[in-house]
Amino acid sequence: MSVGVEKALIPYEALARNTTAVRSVDRHFGFDDLPSVSVVIPTLNEEKNLPFVLPRIPSWVDEVIIVDGRSTDGTVEAARQLCPRARIVLDQTPGKGAALRAGFDAATSDIIVILDADGSMDPAEISLFVGGLIAGADMVKGSRFIQGGGTDDMSLIRMLGNWGLTMLVRILYGSQFSDLCYGYLAFWRRHLDALRPTTNGFEVETHLNVRALKSRLRISEVPSFEANRIFGESNLHAVSDGFRVLRTILRERMPRLG
What we know:
Blueprint: E1 9-10, H1 12-16, H2 19-23, E2 37-43, E3 63-68, H3 75-82, E4 87-90, H4 96-106, E5 111-114, H5 126-134, E6 139-143, E7 150-151, H6 156-173, E8 185-188, H7 192-195, H8 204-214, E9 219-223, E10 225-226, H9 238-253
Parallel strand pairs: 1-9, 2-3, 2-5, 3-4, 6-9, 7-10
Antiparallel strand pairs: 5-8, 6-8
């Protein structure tokens, strides 16, 4: 049984028809009052990856917030050198979810974009996410599985797990998501009260998605390409984190299970 959100997903093709909004963000054409944009980047020992990420963030982004979770390398120093305008938030609570909460609280712009620090997400795609919001969505999420998207960084077990969890959300929430477990997201900050996650781990991305569905926000998927992490090892554990995602899906749909 769905929760009445079957029409919450705005097809990317519908947004793309609004070519002014989707295509001209980078050039500021057609927007005398372009919404301000904050990019939130959680980091943990990403010193070697930041040179491939921070310089590629579009210059029109108003605010870059780096939330560091007790890195033991030179991540913070590298961030300050590569992006002097960035605000550095030092967060002592472990987990990606905790880092994102700290970043959301620090953000002051109209729009919040989540970007990973490992080089797997292309900062050039930020304009597509912002354009989707300007074109009418409340939240825009990246998908690796619609036309124009793709991935170089997904094992068979992760792909099967993501597919199964995506199908479960489609059944329980009436969504039309094609890619649940991908963290490239953007949303209007005015919806933060409805979206604010309480989870601390990698399940935070799913938590944001299902809360958007429960709040009946207008959601769009846009194509996104996930590259391989450039340096280092991911902290994601497919099986244990997959179970955390499953628990989040069920708990949000049936709170008594929490």
